[in-house]
Amino acid sequence: MKEPSALPETVSETYARFLSQLGFDALSDKAVHIAKKNLVDAAGLCIAARNQDYMRQILSAFGDPGPCTAIGHASARNAADAALINGVAIHGEDFDDTLEGAPIRVGAMVVPAVLAEAEHSRLSGERAILGIVAGLESVCRLNHVAAGHMHRAGFHPVGVIGALGAAAGVGVALGLDRDRLAAAFGIAASFASGIIEYLTDGAWTKRLHPGWAAQSGLKAARIAASGFFAPRTVFDGQHNFFKTFAPTARPDYRHLAESLGTDWYMTKIVFKPYACGTMIHPYIDCARRLARQVPDPDAVASIVCDTGEGLVHRLWEPLAGKHRPPSGYAAKFSMPFCMALGYFEGDAGLAQFSDEKARNRRYIEFASKISYRIDPENEYPSNYSGHLRVELKSGEIIELRQPHMRGGMREPLEFREIVDKFHANATRGGWPGGLGDRFLEFCESLESAPDLLELRRFRQ
User: Fold this and answer.
1) Which regions of the chain are under pLDDT 50?
2) Topology of the domain covering 278-402
3) Does the reported pTM lie above 0.70?
């Protein structure tokens, strides 16, 4: 058998070579800034979720002690369990980041894996940031290779691609070379998992996907570091990753070979103002404006929304079920019910998605007036927009449009808004304000930290 160095470079090796040569000084200021925003946003979400039922169940299932921090909790866990717990918490309320243009969550898989490994191995803050940037960039680039096709095959890209992104983040933080990073991709691809059947009844399995991906990526990088033999052709072989998880795609591998280190895909990461499916946000904005314009819901006869075809199977259908979601969590994936919340509540934050509100008769009646039509000119997934055609019982027609998502590339949330969101989430989770302030100081100066043992100060 030929040595790998004597063989033509594979797709995974080409991309791994870029990652292996990445240094902190080569990172753009914007990439570092986004990594810190992601860390702050993720930490606040961990704290907000810490007392939820699903988190209590996860904590009881993964109770092995260790040196690593589960953010918002007093007891420490082993690295893999800490990564899993934090990943579930970040994504648990569907309030975490996403990628515009090729939708996928990003930080919920990467940040927990890198933090756990950095704390366990006493890596510097600079190495942690480098790993977070590498992981975020990897998720974004990998998801562009076959954007949308994993969903069509019934897989959740968060769990599938997320494992590889977490492996990249941990591998770079550890300083793995090209061959070991390529092996980490080969191993993580066999750990990748996650199906979207949760959409049927709002089941909680979606919450598991980023946590499982985070611990899978961490383990994949560690196994690769040992010299384990893994497939070099994981992206371009006969039974490759994309052929398996995105069988209808024609993978575009240019995303793993071109503009590396100059065009940072992670700059397309967006942060959420609402705690629900990202593509719903512009429609919520329209519904809030409708409430100001038509404050009497009984005056509304019907609402028809122009929408992209790619949104239908996840957020619109089955329409009768979306009109009456079975729980507050299921409501997060219902386009019409989220609009009803926006109309009546003037918001769609964590407080809005309760089981009690999902059973509210007035909200259900209003949601039942909402239907959709597919607009072939809709820009999804390159842009998230909203359009409502409202017919009043008087016969008057009102049209409302939102041209883009607030929090997206066209109207990003400023760092101070991320900080405000962090404080609100920390308060919801019962953290003292002073502790939150100290955590923000830690995040904002992370690159100067000699190691991540300081995370232990925040176990509460």
Assistant:
1) 1
2) 60s Ribosomal Protein L30; Chain: A; (3.30.1330)
3) yes
